[in-house]
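Tutorial, part two.
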Amino acid sequence: MNFHIMTLFPEMVEQGLTTSILGRAVENNLITIDTVNIRDYTDDLKHRKVDDYTYGGGAGMLMQAQPIYDCWKAIESKIQNKNADGVSHKTRVIYVTPQGSVFQQNMAQEFAKEEDLIFLCGHYEGIDERVLETIVTDYVSIGDYILTGGELPAMVMIDAIARLVPGVLNNDVSAETESFHDNLLEYPQYSRPEVWMERKVPQILLSGDHAKVDQWRLEQSIERTRQRRPDLYEKWLAEHPPKLDKRKPVL
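Running the prediction step on this input gives:
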């Protein structure tokens, strides 16, 4: 899978996404991280300026349409040129903005099906609306708060998406049992020693009975979700309504 990041600070993104698990994924050619400096596409060759004052007044500067559009066009052309089937299609462009839909695990799963994704990282007071209308396909936020730029949110999303790419995790099954799978939080987990500060590992986990362990983990996930994320619990409950005991009369 290929991630293309349009940014004013490529070093920031590269340093954050080329270590640990994602770094190994890059080395193993499972994913690529392509950072593209928007300043390289400005018409202002002397000052490499990419921002200007907003029409109508207001505080701060706005990123201009031209450098962003030309940057996107260069990335899109590169993507289309490598398509072996020769079929042209518009790559999904994710604009990182607090005005977008809130990023969730199901969104990460959807994006992970793509071969290429382009991320647009804004700065200053935002980006000229005309270029957004021209190139952006998805407006996505990581939460209801404001950051100084789009690089950190883009890195958060790329991390969440990349780990769903086959082979990126050493154990692909782990992605199916983590928090938010089936709207449940992950169950508690334990490692050695068996007793730590007088706290013991639950006996069921030492039993060797995998069916009972699986049932215990499911019960723990359900209860943890009910206590910590009642909103997710309600979603899970709607999809898994309790079964009526036919031996008892319904009152």
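The CA atoms of residues 35 and 231 lie 37 Å apart. In part three we will examine how such features are distributed along the chain.
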